[in-house]
Amino acid sequence: MNQFRILLVEDEHLIRLILSEAMLDDGFDVTTASTGDEAMQHLRNGAVFDLLLTDIQLPGATDGLDVARAARNNAPDMPIIFTTGQPDRMDPWRPGAMDMFIAKPYRPSDVCAAVRRMVGATA
3-class DSSP state for residue 118? Predict the structure, then answer.
């Protein structure tokens, strides 16, 4: 598999660690952020990603939807996978063909399968 670069944004440390390890095991290059502000810094610094996987509800002023907007400004065709335990938080977002939503709680294997599907759609 190609070394696809994923930006994983998740404020829960254990979830972030488990997902990151699972995606690394699948052969992906994973950069993590624990807040929307940290994710935005990666994007502002010119880091290039092939896929964004973000929780919607994040601590601080920048939520996952803000990160998604910024990522799409940099790369309009970037696949985005949103996760949340509160699906109504997705209401302001108009999902497109390259968007996916996964409700919490989820199994890391299901998220990795979704990442592989999304990456396959862009390969």
Answer: helix
Three-class SS state of 60: coil
Say how many CA atoms lie within 13 Å of 89 toward its Cβ.
Answer: 19
Taking alpha carbons only, the member of 97, 32, 98, 40 closest to residue 65 is: 40
Q: How does DSSP classify residue 78?
A: -
pLDDT per residue as tens digits for the range 50-76: 999 999 999 999 999 999 999 999 999
Q: What is the pTM of this model?
A: 0.91
CB contact at 8 A, 36 and 9: yes
Domains in the chain, CATH or no CATH each: 5-122 (3.40.50.2300)
Could you report how far apart the first and last alpha carbons of the chain are, in Å? 10
